[in-house]
Specification:
The structure is a single chain. The protein has five helices and two strands; from the N terminus they run αβααααβ. With 94 residues, the protein is mainly alpha-helical. A two-stranded antiparallel ribbon has the order 1-2. α3 (32-43) packs antiparallel against α5 (63-75).
Length: 94
């Protein structure tokens, strides 16, 4: 029974988008440009608008991308919390 609960919790977590704004806000201003460009390279981005979409959780990241972003932010001095869960709204046809 506890195993099925774990699977359900995992599914609900996977359906949520994650914002790394809390971690980004902990990056020192002097390192922000360098860290931003490292994240650009990791996510394959080329402009601030795309970065903003990932930053605020409007675009899902793969687990590997999320781990790499977290590593970059931690190296820049960010501590917990790094992530913020954003729940998606279920769309229903009426």
């Amino acid at each position: 029974m506890s195993e099925s609960t774990t699977i359900e919790q995992k599914r609900s977590t996977e359906s949520q988008y994650r914002s790394f704004a809390p971690g980004w806000n902990q990056v020192p201003i002097g390192m922000a440009a360098q860290v931003r460009f490292q994240i650009y390279a990791t996510l394959g981005l080329n402009n601030r608008q795309s970065f903003s979409h990932y930053l605020h959780g409007k675009v899902k990241m793969s687990p590997a991308e999320a781990a790499e972003v977290e590593r970059i932010l931690r190296e820049a001095g960010a501590r917990a919390p790094i992530w913020h869960q954003i729940k998606t709204k279920n769309k229903t046809n009426r």
